[in-house]
Write a structure and sequence with these properties.
The chain is mainly α and 249 residues long. The chain has twelve helices and no strands.
Amino acid sequence: MVIQTLIAHLLPIACVFTAAFLQAITGFGLVIIAAPLLMFFYDPKLVVLMMVFLSLCSNTWQSIFVFRQAHHQTVFWMIAGALFGQPLGFFIYDAITPDGLRLFIGVLLLVSLIAMQTFKVKFSITPRNSAVTGAACGLMSITTGMGGPPLIMYTAYSDFTSSQIRATCILFFFFNNIVSISTYVVGGADMAGAIEEAAWLLPGIVLGVGLGSYAFRHVSALLFKRIIFAMLLGMCLYMIWQGLRPLIA
């Protein structure tokens, strides 16, 4: 029975494996890669809750191993900023149409990404900059469902090493997952069904994180930055597509 159920979940497990593999290398990307793919198999609302649980599992496991490598002060100030940015995100979400907001933020991030890559911009890691970045992450997580791009751009275009970027992102998302899942529980969301279904996809998390962590040790700093740039570019284009889709349809 268990084997038959796992076989029935092979395609969703493969989606989660791919996302977890890339997240284990870069420190981000689990939700943005897995969620759209899982929506081919599950109701979108269920996918959102499933991803909260899967992200918590993935980041909890990885945080144990990367905790010492993370820049703890940066994580602290980003979490403080995120707690401020989330309520602001709720206000903006109610005031502006989600599709228009995704389009605006996607274009803004795309222009910023290209400019930083072209002119080799470097961010200084300071409490103020970290808090502002955290606020942007909190705002975007509420308004677009993707809070990662500001954090990745902030750390990737700094003097952090590949290990520090990866560890800092994983640790921040771990605490952010705790806040998110607590918010859903307090808000009355039915997590039981989502957790029950997501549990069948955990083999994808285990295999993806395990192989991705091994692969990270063999990824050069240059290749690491190129992978991050490609994933950020994909995120920006995905947000722009989400914003344009209602206008095209």
